Amino acid sequence: MRWLTLTLVTLLIALQWPLWFGKGSWLRVWQLDKQLQEQRAVTQKLIARNAALDAEVRDLKQGTDAIEERARNELGMIRNGEVFFQLLDPATATKH
């Protein structure tokens, strides 16, 4: 009876080994699931970035407001007849 129990336990371990530690094991499935979740998070960020870029491109193609805003912010341009005022924060301004 003892040999039969030992044989059955050995057989059970031999059958369970590939399930837990083999090529297609549960550990590997858990690792792949974690990688999949990380990749989905990266993909969602890229989708959001692409949507923002698409909206910006559409705005630049269709309207002049976006072009004017970029010209003002990035190039420091002003319209004819406008007066540019720059307000400095007193806390950050240096005293001479």
Automatic annotation (TrEMBL):
Q: Which Pfam families match?
A: DivIC
Q: How does it sit in the membrane?
A: Single-pass type II membrane protein
Sequence ranges on the Periplasmic membrane side? 22-96
Localization, UniProt: Cell inner membrane
Biological processes, Gene Ontology terms: FtsZ-dependent cytokinesis
- Residues assigned to the Cytoplasmic compartment are 1-3
* Keywords (A to Z) from UniProt: Cell cycle, Cell division, Cell inner membrane, Cell membrane, Membrane, Transmembrane, Transmembrane helix
State where it is primarily located.
Answer: membrane
Instruction: Please list every transmembrane segment annotated in the UniProt record, as residue ranges.
Output: none
Look up the domain of life of the source.
Bacteria
- GO cellular component labels: cell division site; cell septum; plasma membrane
- Which InterPro entries does this one have? Cell_div_FtsB (IPR023081), FtsL/DivIC (IPR007060)
Of which family is this protein a member?
Belongs to the FtsB family.
Give the protein's function.
Essential cell division protein. May link together the upstream cell division proteins, which are predominantly cytoplasmic, with the downstream cell division proteins, which are predominantly periplasmic.
State whether it acts alone or in a complex, and with which partners, per the record.
Part of a complex composed of FtsB, FtsL and FtsQ.
**What PANTHER family does the database record attribute to this sequence?**
CELL DIVISION PROTEIN FTSB
Task: Give the protein name, as stated in the record.
Answer: Cell division protein FtsB
Q: Which gene encodes it?
A: ftsB
